[in-house]
Write a structure and sequence with these properties.
176 residues; alpha/beta; Rossmann fold; two-stranded antiparallel sheet; 40% helix; globular
Amino acid sequence: MQTDLDQRLKQIKLVVFDVDGVFTDGRISLNQSGEESKTFHVRDGHGIRLLIHYGVDAAVLSGRKSNAVTIRMRELGLQDEDILQGHIDKLSVFNDLLVRKQLTADQVAYIGDDIVDLGPIRKSAVGFAVNDAHPMVCKYADYVTQEKGGYGAVREICDLILSAQGSLDEALEYNL
């Protein structure tokens, strides 16, 4: 018997990810010149590639702008128009993304870690919070990951979606 969550995950066509605290552990490293560096988990990246391979689109929506994010997301196969950075009002950008992609909220999942993510989390068919998210985000999320942000939470979510859509077994054998 499928759960309600599985039924909603089965309908997902787009997954929107926050970046800092989701793809990363939330820390921002600056060198003496003010250049920023971020650390991304390789398994999270592979999860994104698998989602895209199996027909689930991906986008990132971040309140900050970072060249490191642009470079990494391009490496994973995201198009520039789906790398949305520098947006504090995430709900309005999320709504614009749905219009541009011609999707309804019940076809979209959102993953976040802080209160600026609450609008998209609450509007999406499935709202995810990473394990170490702000407590209010965890309260409103449909699912809280076992893994922390930056340590495999993205991959956990990708695997859940692929499993619900019947692609996980094949995906586990797929080499990108």
